[in-house]
Amino acid sequence: MQAGARVLRLENRLRLLASHDPLTQLLNRRTFFELIEKEWKRSSRIGYPLSCAMIDVDFFKRVNDSYGHLAGDEVLRSVSRRLQRCCRQTDCVCRYGGEEFCVLLPDTGEQGAVLWAERCRSAVAEEPIETAETRIGVTVSLGVAQRRDDTNSPEELLDLADRALLEAKRLGRDRVVALGTLEDEG
């Protein structure tokens, strides 16, 4: 019986390692793509809104250069915890790569996604992140997009959120930009 329990624990550990980022314990990119495909199909079938947010830690390279990679790792872990605290149980948070995160917001229109993104932005910026050596003030930029009738795939939704993120960074960082805002201005 002990051997069977040990094998089960090892299998569970392997599943966790295959689906989660080891540093932040968030979903990894591969698992996120599996989930966005499922939510996309569900959204198509039921007709509920689906939004996505791309999040980038502002000037993260400076954190690594100034304080070292261990401090940078702590910043990523802390940002990930703050993002998770802003999320509902149905939201999917992943470490998309490097200092970038992505959140899928089922049953959320663009207006709700923008409100959520502002809460996240504030949650990250409101208190410096404690590391072993110092306290580091960190901000994030967020790009938000909602699935529309002419959004053809999950990848296109991610691309739209990424375009909004790039605009947030271009406008000075530490802000939220929604794709609808970009379309209204352009």
From TrEMBL:
Q: Name one GO molecular function term.
A: diguanylate cyclase activity
User: What positions does the domain GGDEF occupy?
Assistant: 48-181
Query: Signal peptide position in this chain?
Result: none
> What GO biological process, any one, is recorded here?
cell adhesion involved in single-species biofilm formation
Mind telling me which SMART domains this protein's record contains? GGDEF
Q: Name one GO cellular component term.
A: plasma membrane
Matching Gene3D superfamilies: 3.30.70.270
- Pfam families recorded: GGDEF
Q: What is this protein called?
A: GGDEF domain-containing protein
Source organism per entry reads marine sediment metagenome
Task: Kindly list the organism's lineage.
Answer: unclassified sequences, metagenomes, ecological metagenomes
